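Model it.
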Amino acid sequence: MAKLTSEFDATCPCCQAKLVIDVNLRRIVRHEDPPSADRPELDDAHGILAKQAARREALFQESVNAEKTRGDALSKRFEEALRQARDEPVTKPTRDFDLE
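Modeled.
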């Protein structure tokens, strides 16, 4: 695109983007995003998607294993609470009214 005489280039101090400013309009006419180093390449998209799919699968397998062992842990806790309830003597609960 041809550059007019009323336009000049400037660099954004925050993001280092190139700005083309028109003096007569007192506006930004065009801008170019700065090159980003952390932006992934399109060629790497298949690898990135495969890594994310593997990560999701690993998390799913982890949650499946946790659910399988969850029943065992709950039954152990229940058995322990039942054993403790059998060992304690049966007493009448105290009420606030009884304390006066």
